[in-house]
Design goal:
This protein is α/β, with parallel strands linked by helices and 804 residues long. The protein has 28 helices and 24 strands. The longest helix is centred in the N-terminal third of the chain and has 53 residues, at 191-243. It is elongated and about 150 Å long.
Length: 804
């Protein structure tokens, strides 16, 4: 070893599949922590580092024996950290060859002492050297043309040099060679031998490239031939079709059979479908029966046989999803959580049928759609409103022209899984006529004991619906047949209070409409009082559907003003809504200025929620005629007659002439005569109004009541108490009289309503009279009454009246 050679220490950078040649500039990426540490060390000192290739590129932490002995001392020119990752990009320049003398691990990096290795001396101007260089340049020229992706200045740089060492190193760095071959070139210190070795490698690479070109050309030629054959076959098919000679039925039949067998269905279903395939084979193409059978087979194969989505039985996640997307509806959410909890503990439990009943716009369909998201099931929605034909549910026989499966099977095809959520919307609006009763057709589909083998008229084979989660929606259960209602678990979805509507508008409706109309929170703001004004003066509903339309109208008005440049933003407060929505559509419910005789405020339940129903009674001299007006149903008329009969039986106790039914005509009227009214819950309201009119005692204006009456004066229970009490709160009353049997239902009433109203429970009309009639006002009126007799009245005739 020459003692003049210099030994120095450098941070060591092991390279995987890369050799660096002196005088060359390379880019590479570093990700291993030990290599990054070595780079940082070099950057903070003299920017010099020793790079050597690994023998085994798979080693993450190479040892001394895993590295080649010869590497390159390099100067780090640039280091860039890639944002958002651990990758470091490096630009380095090779300086000189070097040999590892000593190797050690320092902290978290590798360090090596190396001895520089210089090229051996040679005769640069010898004919042999010139011949080798020319051969190398010619081979490199052929190589660059063969690849076609090397820059032209690369060849020019090689031609301009007369140094075989530089030529060999430069070409070696810029061509593709196996890492072992590049390492051999790096370790060769004799320039002429290095250039001869490079010539051999280049010659072999050119042979390989030529073979690759030949293979690629052959592949292209075969592809062209295949394409040509394909086009010719297609043309031949077209010609044969025109002549009527071509028939690919056999291929289609085999395809049908393969698809049927792959489904792994029961023997009964498989046999039925294969039989239809055999029938198809016997039908001439183009006939009506051929099209019918094809449509049938395609429909059957489109069904999701044995395809299920992986259900998420996670109670916490489901509760989070439901609470995020829906405000209130606690009873519905609790039932859904119970279902998911059971699925979590007993995954094999079959589907269930829920029926959400409530006024329009209260979120029944919305939460049904949200359930599918919460349990990670596919969803299909089926609207049943206005369906009159039984075949809409169970399908038509496939022999009919235009036959198709029913909506249940169509929903399963749409859902593309055996365990979807099927939402049957507006189930209370099913009709029936001479074509059948669709509600009866639903009995099998919604019966958990039967729907494992539901048979559609079109399919004629059993299909399993037992894994389906059915959710139906309705506004009332009165129009749902009893047998169908018995198969469903009814969950009542009541109307919203004004405070609940305010929260829904702020959390859901307003952000949704702002986004829909291209507005942001900074461009349109609505104060709580402004939203309350919209709720009170522009809506009269149990849900929030009309409220959303009114908020959308506000957004449209705001968008128009902003687009026209009139305003940059709107901050709406109370009193500013009328300028955008016009005059209020409804007046705020207010109490009457004084207690009145024969006027009682009752409570009613309608399909759109609770309502206040005033009852007016007028008593006139007559022959005992009872007049009932206001578009009343038979049940309400019977309630009025029962109330009058009860009053007759208690006339003496009530201080009423016992023959009033002979001498007085009674007119009972319900305002808003265009709206049909029926039901027994107005019984005590009618009774109190008639008693007030006959006795002349006014009824307290701050009281509302509801309850059915019997002939003996008993107050019997009613339904829809939650909605009725909400209507009472909106109307401004402070006291509500309810039947004693409905006392248990007070727990279901919204707490805001419960705190705001005073509830009086009773089981007899007598207690209603004690609370409702304002006897103090009647007595005061008697005391203050001054009657001036007419001057022509005969003497001795009294005009005073005694009130009981």
């Amino acid at each position: 070893m020459n003692e003049n050679r210099l030994i120095q220490g450098y941070p060591l950078l092991p390279m995987r599949g890369l050799s660096v040649f002196p005088g060359m500039i390379i880019n590479f990426e570093v990700i291993r922590p030990m290599s990054v540490t070595a780079l940082n060390f070099a950057t903070n000192s003299n920017r010099m580092v020793f790079m050597v290739a690994q023998r085994d590129v798979s080693k993450e932490h190479p040892e001394r024996e895993d590295l080649y002995e010869i590497g390159t001392v390099c100067r780090i020119k640039q280091v860039l950290k890639v944002p958002g990752s651990d990758v470091v990009r490096v630009l380095a320049e090779g300086i000189s060859r070097a040999k590892i003398i000593n190797y050690e691990v320092r902290s978290t990096m590798l360090y090596a002492e190396v001895e520089s290795v210089d090229d051996s001396k040679f005769k640069n101007n010898s004919p042999r050297a010139e011949a080798l260089m020319r051969q190398c340049v010619a081979l490199f020229d052929d190589y660059s043309h063969a690849l076609g992706n090397l820059p032209p200045d690369m060849l020019a740089k090689v031609v301009a040099s007369d140094d075989p060492a530089f030529i060999a190193d430069y070409i070696s760095q810029n061509i593709y060679l196996h890492p072992d071959k590049k390492q051999k070139l790096l370790e060769e210190v004799r320039p002429l031998k290095r250039i001869r070795l490079l010539n051999n490698f280049l010659a072999k690479e050119l042979e390989i490239i030529e073979l690759e070109h030949d293979i690629a050309e052959e592949t292209r030629r075969l592809m062209s031939k295949n394409q040509r054959d394909f086009f010719l076959r297609e043309q031949l098919k077209a010609i044969q079709n025109e002549l009527g000679d071509y028939d690919d039925t056999a291929e289609e039949l085999d395809d049908y059979r393969d698809r049927i067998l792959e489904l792994g269905l029961s023997d009964e279903i498989t046999e039925k479908l294969l039989k239809e395939v055999s029938r198809l084979a016997k039908q001439p193409s183009g006939t009506a029966d051929n099209a019918v059978i094809r449509n049938y087979l395609d429909t059957c194969l489109e069904l999701p046989w044995n395809v299920k989505t992986k259900e998420t039985a996670d109670v916490k996640r489901a509760r989070t999803v439901l609470d995020r997307d829906h405000y209130g509806l606690d009873k519905v959410k609790e039932r859904i959580i119970e279902y998911i909890a059971v699925k979590q503990l007993a995954p094999d439990v079959k589907g269930t049928v829920l029926c959400l009943v409530g006024p329009p716009g209260t979120g029944k369909t919305s939460i049904a759609l949200g359930v599918a998201k919460a349990v990670n099931r596919n969803l299909a929605r089926i609207s049943l409103g206005g369906v009159h034909d039984e075949a809409e549910i169970r399908g038509h026989r496939k022999t009919y022209v235009g036959a198709m499966p029913g909506r249940i099977i169509a929903g399963m095809i749409q859902a593309k899984s055996e365990n979807p959520v099927l939402v049957l919307d507006e189930i209370d609006k099913l009709g029936s006529d001479y074509r059948g009763d669709p509600s009866a057709a639903l009995l099998e589909a919604l019966d958990a004991e039967q729907n494992y083998a539901f048979r559609d008229h079109y399919l004629e084979i059993p299909y399993d619906l037992s894994n389906v989660l059915f959710i139906t929606t309705a506004n009332t259960t009165e129009t749902i047949p009893r047998a169908l209602l018995d198969r469903m678990e009814v969950i009542e979805v009541s109307g919203y209070t004004d405070e609940e509507k305010l929260n829904i508008a702020k959390s859901h409706l307003l952000p949704k409409q702002r986004k829909k109309h291209g507005l942001t929170g900074s461009k349109l703001r609505l104060s709580d009082d402004a939203i309350r004004e919209i709720i009170t003066l522009y809506t009269r509903e149990s849900g929030v559907r009309v409220l959303e339309r009114e908020i959308a109208a506000v957004c449209r008005k705001a968008a128009a003003q902003i687009a026209e440049g009139e305003r940059k933003s709107l901050n709406l407060k109370s009193g500013m809504i009328e300028a955008l929505l016009g005059a209020p559509k409804y007046k705020p419910d207010e109490l009457r200025p004084a207690d009145e005789v024969g006027l009682v405020r009752g409570l009613a339940w309608t399909a759109v929620g609770g309502a206040v129903l005033d009852v007016e009674v007028g008593v006139m001299d007559g022959t005992g005629k009872l007049e009932l007006t206001g578009n009343l149903g038979d049940v309400m008329k019977e309630s009025a007659r029962a109330a009058v009969s009860y009053i007759r039986s208690r006339a003496d106790i009530l201080g009423i002439d016992h023959d009033f039914y002979k001498t007085k005509d009674i007119h009972i009227h319900f305002p808003e005569g265009a709206i049909p009214k029926d039901g027994p819950s107005a019984g005590i309201t009618i009774c109190i109004a008639v008693i007030s009119a006959l006795t002349g005692i006014p009824v307290r204006r701050d009281i509302a009541m509801t309850g059915e009456i019997s002939l003996r004066g008993r107050v019997m229970p009613i339904g829809g108490l939650r909605e009725k009490t909400m209507a009472a709160l909106r109307s401004g009353v402070t006291t509500v009289i309810i039947p004693k049997d409905n006392e248990k239902d007070l727990d279901e009433i919204d707490q805001i309503v419960r705190r705001a109203l005073n509830f009086v429970v009773t089981d007899h009309v007598d207690k209603v009279l004690e609370v409702a009639l304002n006897r103090d006002v009647a007595a005061k009126r008697e005391e203050e009454e001054i009657i001036v007799p007419p001057q022509d009245m005969p003497p001795g005739v009294s005009v005073s009246k005694l009130r009981q």
